Amino acid sequence: MSTDLDEVFTRLPEILREQEPYPLLARLREASPYVASDGVVVVANHEYCSTILRDPRTSSDRSRARIFREDVRPPSRKLVDLDPPEHTRIRRLVSKAFTARALAPLVPRIDAMVSDLLDRVAFADSFDVIGELASPLALSTVCAQLGVPAADHDLLGGWSRTLSRGLYPLPLGSVDPEVTGAAARAGGRLLVYFKKLLAEPRNGSRGPVLDALLHAEGEGTRLTENEVLGVCALLVNAGYETTVDLIGNGVRALLEHPGQLRRLADDPGLAPAVVDEVLRYDSPAQITTRVAVADLTLGGLRIAAGDLLVLLLGAANRDPGAFARPDEFDVCRAEPPQHLAFASGPHFCLGSGLARIEATAAFAAFAARVVEPRLPTDRIVYKATPSLRGPDSLRVAFSGVRAAPPVPATATADHGVGQERSRV
Ligand code: HEM
Predict the structure, then answer these.
(1) pLDDT of residue 365
(2) Against a cut of 0.85, is the pTM above it?
(3) Which residues make beta-bridge pairs with 395?
(4) CATH assignment at residue 74
(5) How many domains does the chain have?
(6) Angle at the Cα of 330 from the Cα atoms of 326 and 332, rounded to 5 degrees
(7) Distance of CA 285 to the CA centre of its chain
(8) Ligand 1 atom closest to 358 (CA)
(9) 102-128, pLDDT tens digit by residue?
(10) Structural domain of residue 323, as residue ranges?
């Protein structure tokens, strides 16, 4: 076992906050499957990550990994931590809230929200893409779907950010109990918030997704109240920061590749392809994990039941075995996108369609309206979330903001909403 690679693995959370983490991630990918320590295997190439994500001999219940001591055992029992048949039942019901038909009405609303957010900064000479565009867009969108009043959006956003900082997927020793304690409390507050929200009498809609969750029925089963609460809390957490990261990473990539930005400005119909290329090139969700629940072999390596598999999705999305010129940002790639940014298999992201709509609107409007945008000259500071990658803030200078077109170009574009784009 190479000590050098061990050090790269140990430093993963810091590496993911660097300006250019991919050369180091490539080293883990080239060595993968790689035994980082007893009971921990790093999987970072595209083929093996896809295999593991779809293999029924692996579990999403991280508490089954033998390396987790009691005190660092990750909190479980969210949809994303469940296995069949419980996962299958709940996922079928929740997915009714995310069909293409359910998402379609959001397209013009999200276009209008992006337009309004850009209008607000039009008379400044710079704006923070995270704080003034991506974050309000993603937070308001997910909260509106769940019927959360606007006055409470920031409260939920704060809890979600605290929760994400404490979702520590790696067995790397340096878990700060203050951070994980705060995360557990924030997760609890989200549940209590939704319990109170549901207890309030309401005439009419509680928000399209919450309505759909409350009424979802199938094969003689419905979601229990606790399941609805858990899904609401998960949706705020899973749907907010990842989408912010996608928009932040995308604006950085576009500004570092002005030719690609010009292409998008000339052809707003390219926006959905830009979204997929950003997801591949600089993935928001960099790490997920699985636990082997039976002995299996991967790339000649014997993996024992109870081993934790650390899947580096961002590294897999730069795999030369899967993508031509993987380190180039090219919004006109010929091959159909096969990236793993939304995972694959039974836990494929349920909100991928919604995230795509938001990012499509943001990139198209940014390219069309922001005049001579420039990246900050300082280093970009990345968030301290152990498995997500995205800028903490991204102040972009510009010479002006053009007026919004009367009919947003993205209102009619193909957003790839719903499950059709899922490769499950
Ligand atoms: C760019 C934005 C997003 C990215 C990169 C992303 C990424 C992911 C990934 C990688 C998973 C699989 C995790 C695993 O299996 O371990 C996942 C699952 C999930 N995501 Fe997303 N997500 C995004 C946006 C959203 C949005 C907007 C929502 C909803 C509002 C959402 C809801 C979910 C849910 C409910 C799951 C769990 C699905 C299941 O376990 O069956 N995500 N997401």
Answers:
(1) 98
(2) yes
(3) 128
(4) 1.10.630.10
(5) 1
(6) 125
(7) 5
(8) 27
(9) 999 999 999 999 999 999 999 999 999
(10) 3-421
